[in-house]
Amino acid sequence: MTALQVNNLRKSFGGLDVIQDVSFTVEPGERRLLLGPNGAGKTTLFNLIAGDLRASGGRILLQGRDVSALSTSQRAACGLGRTFQILTLFGRETVLGNVVMALLGSSPKRWKPFGAVVHDTALRRRALSVLARVKLEGLADRPIQETSYGEKRRLEIAMALAQDPQVLLLDEPLAGLSKEERGTVSALLEDLPRSLTIVMIEHDMDVALAFAERIALLNHGRLLVDGTRDEVIADPRTREAYLAQ
Ligand SMILES: Nc1ncnc2c1ncn2[C@@H]1O[C@H](COP(=O)(O)OP(=O)(O)OP(=O)(O)O)[C@@H](O)[C@H]1O
């Protein structure tokens, strides 16, 4: 069974066709890179897969199940996690508080007074173990405002991991990071287990190409090339898409 299957997906905004008949599959455990020049439709494709946008046509299957009609939270419950290009943290909470919110997901406990929830020992222990996966357990009680940009990016990955997804969409996890922070984040991505399938959008080519096993190249909303890393790099259409930018 494929981890993720996108079939003839389409999205239009008014008269603008942003995603046009895109189909590809991602196998379990695969490291897949989504490449394409600015405005190619990569983030829109993530929004469609995650359910943040409704498709104009086509289907999305997550581990064999058609999730096209499901909401974002229902897709998350089916094993889909994601991070965003723009940070989406709870700015007034601590590092741990953010992970606790992610762990609670749509649970009714989420609506309890936050102080009560964050002192729940079992939840706190789970949150600490998630933070350890991104090497932030030492900063658990630090307010978000006092963390660096790189720490915030790692926290976002922790929040996506908190719900134990089977398929993880990473939207430019290295954007805006220093060289040292890029090294830290790419090392922790390398360490993620193969039980997790990862689809990543990333403009840092050194890291992205080292990570990717297969690449899907989008251009003007169409899937231009889809294959192994070496096939896509060698394909003249890849060069043309970037040179034309
Ligand atoms: N809500 C919207 N309404 C209208 N047009 C939109 C909307 N969202 C995206 N677009 C357009 O869709 C196209 C694809 O945008 P998208 O952000 O998906 O590209 P991208 O490949 O992720 O680009 P980048 O690499 O710059 O992040 C762009 O032309 C963009 O202007």
Automatic annotation (TrEMBL):
<dbReference type="GO" id="GO:0015188">
    <property type="term" value="F:L-isoleucine transmembrane transporter activity"/>
</dbReference>
<keyword id="KW-0547">Nucleotide-binding</keyword>
<dbReference type="GO" id="GO:0005886">
    <property type="term" value="C:plasma membrane"/>
</dbReference>
<dbReference type="GO" id="GO:0042941">
    <property type="term" value="P:D-alanine transmembrane transport"/>
</dbReference>
<dbReference type="GO" id="GO:0015808">
    <property type="term" value="P:L-alanine transport"/>
</dbReference>
<dbReference type="InterPro" id="IPR027417">
    <property type="entry name" value="P-loop_NTPase"/>
</dbReference>
<dbReference type="GO" id="GO:1903806">
    <property type="term" value="P:L-isoleucine import across plasma membrane"/>
</dbReference>
<dbReference type="InterPro" id="IPR003593">
    <property type="entry name" value="AAA+_ATPase"/>
</dbReference>
<dbReference type="Pfam" id="PF00005">
    <property type="entry name" value="ABC_tran"/>
</dbReference>
<dbReference type="InterPro" id="IPR051120">
    <property type="entry name" value="ABC_AA/LPS_Transport"/>
</dbReference>
<dbReference type="InterPro" id="IPR003439">
    <property type="entry name" value="ABC_transporter-like_ATP-bd"/>
</dbReference>
<dbReference type="GO" id="GO:0015192">
    <property type="term" value="F:L-phenylalanine transmembrane transporter activity"/>
</dbReference>
<feature type="domain" description="ABC transporter">
    <location>
        <begin position="4"/>
        <end position="245"/>
    </location>
</feature>
<dbReference type="GO" id="GO:0016887">
    <property type="term" value="F:ATP hydrolysis activity"/>
</dbReference>
<dbReference type="GO" id="GO:0005304">
    <property type="term" value="F:L-valine transmembrane transporter activity"/>
</dbReference>
<dbReference type="GO" id="GO:1903805">
    <property type="term" value="P:L-valine import across plasma membrane"/>
</dbReference>
<protein>
    <submittedName>
        <fullName>Amino acid/amide ABC transporter ATP-binding protein 1 (HAAT family)</fullName>
    </submittedName>
</protein>
<dbReference type="GO" id="GO:0005524">
    <property type="term" value="F:ATP binding"/>
</dbReference>
<keyword id="KW-0813">Transport</keyword>
<keyword id="KW-0067">ATP-binding</keyword>
